UniProtKB/TrEMBL annotation:
Ranges where the DNA-directed RNA polymerase II subunit RPB9-like zinc ribbon domain occurs: 3-54
Family annotation (Pfam families): Zn_ribbon_RPB9
SUPFAM superfamilies xref list: Zinc beta-ribbon
Any one of the GO BP annotations: DNA-templated transcription
InterPro entries: Zn_ribbon_RPB9
The name this protein goes by in its record: DNA-directed RNA polymerase II subunit RPB9-like zinc ribbon domain-containing protein
């Protein structure tokens, strides 16, 4: 976790002095913060909404379906023909 100096906004470094005390210290100014308890910060991360790359439900509404096989117990596949552009020939 990065902590920044409240006076000059530089990154604070964790230093341990000869007495065993741990502190945040700024490298640019004399700011010092003695660490006497655990410091935690909880950050809630929200998942980004994913774009539907296959076009959504409406794209597959009129798609052809394969026949459902009773022996395999699998769902029928949706088939949508797409036009493919070939590279130019020499
Ligand atoms: Zn500073």
């Amino acid at each position: 976790m990065l902590t920044f100096c409240p006076t000059c906004a530089n990154v604070l470094m964790v230093r341990k002095d000869a007495g065993g005390n741990v502190r945040y210290a700024c490298q640019s100014c004399p700011y010092t913060y003695f660490i006497d308890k655990e410091i935690t910060k909880v950050i809630r991360v929200h998942k980004k909404e994913v774009d539907d790359v296959l076009g959504g439900e409406d794209t597959w509404k009129n798609a052809q379906r394969t026949e459902n096989s009773e022996s395999l117990a699998v769902r029928p596949a949706l088939v949508r023909p797409m036009q493919r552009v070939s590279p130019a020939l020499w």
